[in-house]
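Annotated sample (chain length 599).
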Amino acid sequence: MENLVEIQNLKAYYRAFLYGVDREVRAVDDISLTIGRGEVYGVAGESSSGKTTLIKTIAGAIRPPLRVVSGSVKFHFGGGTQDIYAMTPEERMALRWRHLSYIMQGSMNVLNPVRRIRHSFTDFAFRHVKVSKSIFFEKVAAHLQRLKLDPQLLDAYPHELSGGMRQRMTIALATILTPEFIIADEPTTALDVIVQRDVLSMIREIQREMGSSFLFVTHDMGVHAMVSDRIGIVYAGRLVEEAPTAKLFSMPLHPYTQHLVGSLPKIGDPTTRPSAGGTPAEPRHAAGRLPVSPTLPEADGDLLTEGSAHGDRRAATARGMFCSNGRSGLTALLSLSHVTKVYRQGGMLGRRLITAVKDVSFELGEEPEILSIVGESGSGKSTVAAMILGQTEPTEGQLQFAGKTVAIHSRAERKAFMKEVQPVLQNPFEAFNPLKRVDRYLFETARNFSADGKRPDRQQAEKIADAALHHVGLTLEEVKGRFPHELSGGQLQRVAIARALIPEPRLLVADEPVSMVDASLRMAIVNLFGRLKSELGLSIIYITHDLATAYYVSDNIIIMRKGEIVERGRARAVLDDPQHEYSRALKDAVLAADFAAVV
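Output written by the structure step:
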């Protein structure tokens, strides 16, 4: 196969002089790889592994304090060879979008929220074609129709489109000029399983039609199994393993790759999955052997390929699950009876009613259990969570906690309720003020929501915070004095869970808690929920669109569509043999982290 992209010994470091200390982070540390014409090359790795910096260096989009120390990035476009770091800024600008394009993770990072979508096509692509604007938009309309998109959407604003539709539009924008090389950075991370599969099918179809090469970056191994021809594993700034997709899934060599492939749950397989604990490895300045997570065997920094020798791979797994023993027959901890929520949208001249939740009823018994609520965006999952948390009241029906109607009208009522019910948000970075140290949140929660009602002093608050952190596999020493950006996403999500545990609640409401967490840390949080249920007697409502983790950790499951419950029951029974057509569609759309399952 002829190479389109050649990267040789690329080194890109972040260097800064702060507070009298010269700091250096080797984010891309001597990476070499090639991408063939028409090939989809996948890159996998956890947060802070260097994936995003690698993308920036390949595209030539670097800004201080990042700088390329050595190496080359060469493209073979149009029969010639261009080294992106030997080009002028004007030459790089001409190269982009015409030959090298980009699909970003969040569509709203591309589409201007205050301008119609057609303006994005004008801003990004029109200057690269030598035709009139009317002819250009005729081409755009034809391209959208080819991608099964309505050309009338060009006159819409981004917020008027669903998340999946916006992402399809950004893909259309990135491919309108038929570029030879496209970088896709986590293009389906925040999408529901059905929308995700549709978007991935669209990307694969476009790639085959245009014959373009893709650099596809994602932490979801199921996505790689579906779209990637070869996969490179980035760990601590280095490319530690590379192989064709089938080979990587069937015989992973590096310990981190083995963990990625083996840790994710699958519907129908109840085997207990390992968690990656400890502090994630980071590309610090020390050279030589690779830093490793405390839970992974140590490996040296050599690239492992198909021909590398490797030792025994032990898979010490145990059968079993976190199972409820059934209802206790006592008063329900939580009860929703014929709950409906209707939102009114618009003003006096044009008001409409939107039914977000319709006639929903279910109970959580006194005995601890994990209940998953599953459904696509707009199904009503988050509205149910908001009502349970007392953030909004039902339009109709009754919602009770511990036998009392949930109705919060004063600050004192709010405080009393929050001692019993605590939230865990989807994005941990939105749960903390970026300018406030995370330990202060823990201390304040300990002082304001102490379980015995007494306000502890600083020393007692530290003990309470440290005890809560131990439940989630952290210590106060690890987070003390640190700001949110100084912790990984997985660490910060565990801190958020620890904070929720301090009041010793009886119920956690976790709204998509692992959707923004890397694959290597997802199981750490899911396994943590199981331990909290069994060790602390905590009930958890787990809201997710990830059916595999719901199957793995849940006692019971509710599947919602368009505000209504369409199926419910024991989680494994429902997902092993779904009865409703929508439940079957959700299951069929799940991307297994198993190459054999998708070929």
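Annotation: The first helix runs from residue 51 to 59.
Annotation: The domain at 334-598 is CATH 3.40.50.300 (Rossmann fold).
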